[in-house]
Amino acid sequence: MSIIEKHLYKLLNQKNLFETNPVIAVAASGGPDSIALVFLLKNWIKRNKGKLIALIIDHQMRESSFKEANFVNKYLINNNIQSLILKVPKKNVLKGKMIQARENRFLKIINYCKKNKILHLFIGHHFDDNIETFVLRKIAGSNFEGLNCMQERTIYNEVQIIRPLLKFTKKQILNYNKKMNLFYVNDPSNKDEKYSRVVVRNFIKKSPQYKKNITQEFKLIRENYYDYKKMIFQIYNLINIEIHKNMIIFDSIKFLNLDQELQAKFTEITYKFFYPKKPFLRYHKVIKTLDKLSETVNLSINLSKMKVRRNNKLIYFVT
User: Fold this and answer.
1) CATH architecture assigned to 3-206
2) pTM surpassing 0.90?
3) pLDDT tens per residue, range 125-182
4) How far is CA 100 from the centre of its chain?
5) How far is CA 14 from the centre of its chain?
6) Where are the domains of the chain?
7) Domain 232-318 belongs to what topology?
8) Measured between alpha carbons, how far is 56 from 61 in angstroms, rounded to an integer?
9) Bridging pattern class, strands 153-156 and 159-162
């Protein structure tokens, strides 16, 4: 048994991760990562007497997209793997927009899982993907939480997203495919430098020392992430006075003496407490609200659905 198989089966056999006879879906692009994951899960699901379906997206970004999706579909069916092609509506396709394409694919698959009561979705992201994401987010000025990047397990819209290959490099996955004689397709967009991710990927490949340094930085953030979260909530608890279902009250002086980045973080935490299923607040809107809050006493202002009020002593966040 390969090291990838050992890690995957150890992760998936944890208690309370799945129901009896689980039903799972896998996002199958046909690339080496998703193909490796599909075949790894095929063996695991058989042992656990569950069902697996591979979901293939016809993204319509290229004229050949349906032909490629159909080819992957036939390959999986010939290997006794249930699969289905989902087509992204043409109206949702913005030419050349890779971010939009990824979002289209993800939402299409999530919606299918919700509709068919599939609780678990597997995605084949690997370690190199996370390093590239880290660099892109670092360039964009992401905060500490954003730099923590993709996790092995998350929940989105009541579907558990599992990325069991995040500890493995592209090279390890390619070696596994070669060992198992698995066929996969190469997406031509992965070599097109009009996309920022490809530029970052190629730069990392050509700069071994940079790759070493950025990998160390990424691992350091991952290792200290939960200490950071603990610190944030300790400070949050020190400056709030009361927490109710529909209202949280802060000491005005303590809150406004914080660095604005911390103020923004606590505003975001409070908003998520009230509206856990809503998207995150726009950062620029939070900062605009905080600027007004620091300048004006006896203020009442709306931030999305949340009302923010201030007097001399207290700041109220109210639904």
Assistant:
1) 3-Layer(aba) Sandwich (3.40)
2) no
3) 999 999 999 999 999 888 888 899 999 999 988 999 999 999 999 999 999 999 999 9
4) 15
5) 21
6) 3-206, 232-318
7) 3.30.465
8) 14
9) antiparallel
